[in-house]
Amino acid sequence: MNLIYIAGDDRSGSTMLDMMLAGHSKISSVGEVHHLRAYAKKDHQYYKSVHELLCLCGQDIKDCEFWSNVESALGRKLEELELKPFFLRSNFKGKVFQGILKKIIWHSLQVFPKLYNIETVHNLLRGNILAKDSFDLYNAVSCVTGNEYVLDSSKSPLRMRALAYHKPESMKVILLSRDFKGVINSKHKRGIPMLKAAYHWKWCIRQMELFSLILADNQICRVRYEDLCNNTESEMRKITDFLGLSFEQSILTRNAENVHHLGGSPSKYAGKEAPIKIDESYKNKFTENQVNKLFKIVENEAKMWGYDVV
Prior knowledge:
The chain is an alpha/beta fold. The chain has one domain: P-loop containing nucleotide triphosphate hydrolases (Rossmann fold, 3-Layer(aba) Sandwich). The chain is built from 12 helices and 5 strands. It is globular, with a radius of gyration of 19 Å.
């Protein structure tokens, strides 16, 4: 089994890329599979989704033949799997001390991501359990589908790091970025303050770059959302070459047929009807002063990926 992992910030086009790759005959996509427990337990606190917690096929996880077969191959209940860092779970709700501890851990790892590279910290936060359970799940998916490649678009760099540390030889990572202005605007429309969105973009890029050092250069592929939209075929050919797969025309559009995808943007429900088109609605949404202020926050990471104030 070979794992394809998409890492990046929210609102960066990961769902679009996932649904495109899902059309390849040798790839099985499970979407943002770190939300699997929420889907299995119908826990909207664990995953505050804007859509129903149903498999993309339209069925509840427990009624979906695909996920039922995966559970059988796994030999464990899906909700028993630890696929998300424990400090991000909803069972801390109403527990003051645990809630404070969660915030301290989360902010510490954002500002000082190298902490997660310390094996004692990694294991204390159960990163080793997360990785083992995840690979058990991927192997079960591969067994059920017969496909060697399993695609996980959970995005989290922390999750990527845990997986890479556990089985580096079994994964390839696509680092996906989008212009910080587009990401910040998209998040701001959803109620997230601009400065908070800017810092999260910065921290996410920093974590992606740091944790990708665990892997060899030929296991990392960098993709920009803008290039994917403007030069779709050449970018998808680059990705399939990176994966060692043949190029197929089917991956030039979004795919939903026979895909059992979790999480992601609601745009996944549009299927092939949603064009691969760049969203530049953020233009003219910021004042010059706002852009300059945001750029000062993300400058180093933005320049690293070729983004500027314009």
